């Protein structure tokens, strides 16, 4: 695939305009951001309290990183692998299980991996780790009550980018996995062409140049097999995230649906996954249902 390294979305914007487009923490305000981060942890703790599962399983010997398995029981269940956000340098699996009880009640298990945060490791290494997590689910999941043939992936913000990196082709061979190991995907407020981040504050801990950013951009990578996807984004999201979600939906073609969630911002849109009646929960459950054999 031929890519012009300098032809990226928003290249005509000033550094200040790019910061407005991608600095969603500033857009939300520090008080609202802190409130929502507290809510992430509280809702996650409440969701997994008393839930059957196996927390703290090492999935990657190289890094020693762990994942939590929630909501198992009986026959192996379809599984939603959720990748947390935090611009690749914050949050953890402990803040990111708020959907686990809702899914358990619907017959679906949840897997929430940690990954080593930047700048301790490169973004390339973070991508390798989340791919290793999916490989673990496929190889070891059945022993933990997971159906390896019904893996759906999703994530928010940086986790949306990592979701995209699981949707593309090529990496599966490295891990000895089938090309269709990911059966469906639901990125929230994702970043699919990360070249603009080379010019914003996020690059303080990513340390990317344009060439590496292009190689880590799902929209620019081969994907002959297009798994079913719902590309979700908040109506009150950052303009950069809104535009990237619209562009990636067009790029993914007929296999994808764009969902712009009204009255939600970059941080609270994904919390709707705790409510089975919400539009995003219904969309996710619809994707999972399509994986049935």
Automatic annotation (TrEMBL):
* Superkingdom, taxonomy of origin: Bacteria
The keyword Hydrolase appears for this protein = yes
User: What keywords tag this UniProt record?
Assistant: Hydrolase
Task: Name the InterPro entries for this protein.
Answer: AB_hydrolase_fold, BD-FAE-like_dom, GDXG_lipolytic_enzyme
Residue intervals of the BD-FAE-like domain: 75-171
Q: Which is an annotated GO molecular function term of this record? A: hydrolase activity
Q: Does the keyword Hydrolase apply?
A: yes
Protein's UniProt name: Esterase
Protein's organism = Actinomadura rubrobrunea
